[in-house]
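hi! just following up on the protien thing from before. the input was this:
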Amino acid sequence: MPALQGDFGGLEDLAERVRKITRPGFKEAVARRLTGTAIKLLADEFRKSQNPYGEPWAPVSRNRPRDIRARAARARAGKPPRGDKPLIDTGRLRAAAVGQGAGQASGGMVRVVIPVSYASYHQDGTRRMVRRQIIPDRAGGLGPIWAGAFRKEIELAFLQNMKPGGGKAAG
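and the predicted 3d structure came back as:
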């Protein structure tokens, strides 16, 4: 009767690496990574003045009296007018984004919160304000930018944990 012979020590190592990525700790570590990725993606959106799907935000119209006075003061001082980037007036909205992952959220979920009272007006738009979407929504899904970045992080975490020797637990 034929017998299977060989060194099967590597098989047990592979089995342990597979067990590691099925444990809850792995999901939580990946959620922490994705939370950091989401915050970076938001910073990129504000820098590029675009929504999560790569479409540019509508330009701003600065006709408030304080904006007119500020432009006039800069002109009198011989300074060029400031570029009006959408959603960046005080910087408060841009700086407020908080990611919640792993311990704060259940089941390895990633959640991005912008705890500024007027964030929803920009996210959804109003009767008088054009929509300048900040985070992906259910209707549009993650889109190619966010989905691609998340996929890359998940694959990296998986590969790091599947290396012989085990690597660190994704975080």
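The chain has six helices and two strands.
The radius of gyration is 24 Å.
cheers
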